[in-house]
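User: Hi! I'm working on a homework problem where we have to compare a predicted structure to a textbook description. Could you give me the structure for the chain below?
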Amino acid sequence: MVYIGLSNHMKSSLSQVLKMELQQNGRRNPKKAQSTVGHCLDRLVWIAVVMMIWICKLDLNAQPEIRVDVLLNAQSNASFWMHPRVGMVPHDQDHPMAVMTLQETDREGTHMYHGLSTMVWDSRDKKWSSPQRDSALARRVDAQGLIEVFVDATPSWHSKTGKILLTGATFWLDPQLKKHLPDGGSDVAYSVLDLQKLAWSPWSKLELPSEPKFHFARAGCTQRVDLPDGDILLPIYFGGKGNDSRHKAAVARCRFDGNVLSYLEHGNELSIEVVRGFVEPSLCLFQGRYLLTLRNDLKPYVAWSMDGLHFSKPQVWRFDDGSELESYNTQQHWLVLPDACYLLYTRRGLDNDDIFRHRSPLMMSRVDSTTLQLMKSTERQVLPKLKDGFGNFGVCHVSEDETWVTAGRRGAKPGEGSVYRARILW
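Assistant: Happy to help. Predicted structure tokens:
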């Protein structure tokens, strides 16, 4: 007989009851023994149901341990660190390696990014290397003195080719204006890491269809999904007239051969007639459905798809009590486990009206995969409330027991924490 979800003690007790009843009454009164067995089985079923409900509730409310540390302080009066994101290199199960990309940003001006730097963490000594600039990821200057720079990058392991593929976007900067060009274009940018030399390939641009709407096209601050055949579902957003135009979001299916990233197609274009539209989409796959979270200037949105290309009409992110998430003009990202999906975000209502765009503390909540609402009882602080906040962050699974969230603190002064890491221990 199978006893589902019961302790060994309970199994033994029930077995003894059945055995005694059969011994005492089985021969004299088979019907009575049969009735007793049926009664015991009914009780067994109810006990199993109650225990399964209890186990589910216990799992739902289980809280992981979160440890926060500072990986880098701001080093100069002129700049601070932004966009730290990590990709894991699974050399083998015993000695994985983490690769972080990040970039300095001038304190003066807007979006005045420097070329990307790299830090490496080896699981054997548990230490990070210092940030190293790579000329392959450097700024490029044209004949007019304008700067094109690779920004908003996310490194991620590509299993089919055994490579770290770094995807992001470009910005055109005007050093005279000390900001991005108002109507400047943008491209989806990428680079590939040489694991032997720990050196990046010169950053390249994804060739999209030659259409005006792709004048400003980006995969900045996004999370992608790699398919079993090696193809990549890469969320992008695009608009015809620069950073301040109205954008649409879509997922592009791309092919990666280990060196070159090629566009194949993209799905339906998601749009909203609100300020700058949809930007910085992030994609995940959970329990057979693709989920896409979308940044908007006023509210965050979520959509779903069965094929990863064609998505439902976006709906506003809400908690399961019906209230809106009240995040705005800030990216969100996914944290996906085998049996649970979480959204990471910032929002109003956390005694943080003094923080720019309410960008700290950084929070996470579990997603109800049926309703696509956030379970408010599961909300948890990931990074603390700090001045200037965390408007840029990334999520990386280190192992089945540990996830890292890395974030850059905008405006950190020399000696203050600039790159933070939350270690989520499951």
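For your comparison, note the following. Helices lie at 8-25, 30-61. Residues 84 and 162 are 22 Å apart (CA to CA). Good luck with the assignment!
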